[in-house]
Amino acid sequence: MRSLIVFVALAVAVQSVDQELVNEFTEKITEIGMKCAQETNANNEDIAALVGHQIPQSKEGKCMISCVYKAFKLQNEDGSLNPNGISDWMERLEKSDEDMYGKLKQVIDECLKPENVLPDHCDTSVKVSSCASETAKKVGLGTAVMNL
């Protein structure tokens, strides 16, 4: 479940990031992930897919991603995207690791665009997740940072 929020997960995976920020994020994502799994009726296969850095095949699993994005205010209740949703986390990251902040900002700018919004909120979150994974690799964050 920790890989659900690609944006912040990318940031906290780097050693130079403040350990307090890492711990706080890990606790928060675990809490939200469990809540969203229950709310969306995601099953064990969905959760296993997410833990394995894969997009779940079921609607419930895809909606779990949207639920988490909404909890972190990356996605609004109407399904639109909010690039400023994690501004508190980003401010703290900038103080901890400016290089990582810059790379993560590129991911946010690329993936949280209005053209990535689809009619279905769950499909939007899947599109954003895929974009974030691809863009992270392009800006030098690589796959290793996904292994939280």
Question: Can you characterise this structure?
Answer:
The protein has 148 residues and is mainly α. The protein has one domain: Pheromone/general odorant binding protein domain (Recoverin, domain 1, Orthogonal Bundle), CATH 1.10.238.20. 62% of the residues lie in helices and 0% in strands. Helix 1 runs antiparallel to helix 6, helix 4 crosses helix 7 and helix 5 runs antiparallel to helix 6. The longest helix is centred in the first third of the chain and has 22 residues. The chain is globular and about 40 Å long.
Spell out the blueprint of helices and strands:
Layout: H1 6-12, H2 19-40, H3 44-51, H4 59-71, H5 87-96, H6 98-111, H7 121-138
What profile does the largest beta sheet have? none
CATH class: Mainly Alpha
Q: Judging by the overall fold, what is the CATH architecture? A: Orthogonal Bundle
Question: What is the quaternary state of this protein?
Answer: single chain
Please report the number of helical segments: 7
Radius of gyration: 14 Å
The domain tally reads 1
Strand content: under 5%
Which descriptors apply to this entry?
148 residues; mainly alpha; Recoverin, domain 1; 62% helix; globular; disordered N terminus; disordered C terminus
Give me a quick take on this structure:
The protein has 148 residues and is mostly helical. The protein contains 7 helices and no strands. The termini are close together.
